[in-house]
Amino acid sequence: MESPQETVMRISQELGCSPTSRRAAEYLDQHDEIGHLRQEFLIPKISDLPSSELSLVDGSEDCVYFVGNSLGLQPKSAKKYIDEELEKWAKTGVHGHTDGSRPWAWAENDLEGLMANVVGAKQEEVALMNGLTVNLHLLMLSFYKPTPKRHKILLEDRAFPSDHYAVGSQIRLRGFSPDDSMLLMKPRQGEEILRTEDILSVIEREGDSVALVMFSAVQYYTGQFFDMEAITKAGHAKGCLVGFDCAHAVGNVELRLHDWNVDFACWCSYKYVNSGAGGLAGAFIHEKHMDTVRPALVGWWGHELKTRFLMNNELKLQSGVNGFRLSNQPILLVCPLQASLEIFNKTSMKDLRTKSVLLTGYLEYLLKHYYSKDESNPDKAYIEIISPSEPQERGCQLSICFSLPIRHVFKELEKRGVACDMREPNVLRVAPVPLYNTFTDVYRFITVLGSALSNCNKLQRS
Known about the structure:
By secondary structure, the protein is α/β, with parallel strands linked by helices. Helix content is 36%, strand content 12%. It contains 13 helices and 15 strands. The chain has a 7-stranded mixed beta sheet, sandwiched between helices. It has a 4-stranded antiparallel beta sheet with strand order 11-12-15-14, with helices on one face. Strands 1-3 form a two-stranded antiparallel ribbon. Helix 2 runs antiparallel to helix 13 and helix 12 (406-415) crosses helix 13. The longest helix has 23 residues, at 349-371. The radius of gyration is 23 Å and the shape is globular. The model has no long low-confidence stretch (mean pLDDT 95). It comes from Triplophysa rosa (Cave loach). Its main location: cytoplasm. InterPro entries: Kynureninase, PyrdxlP-dep_Trfase, PyrdxlP-dep_Trfase_major, PyrdxlP-dep_Trfase_small. Its EC number is 3.7.1.3.
């Protein structure tokens, strides 16, 4: 299979131009079979960004939005759907619970098939409910069953803080100590990412004491896409249950939660799934647990729909993940999620991933071409990409370290209309999202980065 670099080189030869020229980017956009999906989103203008300086850029241009790994862009139909529900509330009041195209009492159920397609699951294995950390707690209450001999939870050392806190509190809740029961995996000395063989080795060595393997699917800091299938298989071989936080994976990489035999997973929907800040989260429980794993905490919405409103206090719990529902979902959060999932339904995760590999590979190629360390020119600013170099081992995010102070670089990019994400201590997370980003966006980012680094160098010398 042709690598992204080989594709760019081939196209530039066919065009008779440099692979670093804008013509190559424009050609890739012209032949992007899902490029039209960008029109489904609202792209912020540079002039609307709070940190932009219009003396440096044309404020009427679309910004370079490379921060979908933190908050996805707004689908154009989100406002229309929200307005519809506000209008229905105004005109019909309580009747909105059961009437209209989006009855409030079960509106999220109509989206679960679309969500299941994105995560590689059966519809009955997926529920849309709560927030990510709430779902993580609900799932761990049922799947984390520690014993004196098997009480550890294995997770990556640099797990997202919310996961780290949730795991620690679950351990304490069961009467154990995180110091003894939280098994943290660190990369090898001098490395940034975890090697798959090291993860599998720890599971083999420590597995008899591990109750739960609880990893990210895509690591938020480095962008590493873990080998979920191999981790799940290794965990099961040692008698461990295996769950994943898919917050940075859903809508980013191809997932096959059902086929990989993952026990459970949860995710937010406001990053690559574009449901808006605090959007409705998702949860997955494999069908093999349908009749055996029950929620530790139950609520009205876990009761089967047919008899839910009889109000007789005789619980008829839905099987599987649906029984974990606690209460009805906020309709104003259902609306933007519907808007986004309908866009996903116009393509496939396979096609999105194909574009993503090339789009991120193109970014990587240009970054290395212009900003690799030059031993013959020690004064030249340079970058280091800490995300995996193998496209299949990362999502669309590249995490970049700089030879210059990261805060200075970040501010200079913001002034020039680039939206990306800085993470302490020294990483810029750059995420070209295939649903709405273009190859020309990548070209513009590289150009702006050159200007930003040049100004940072001047500030360093002054």
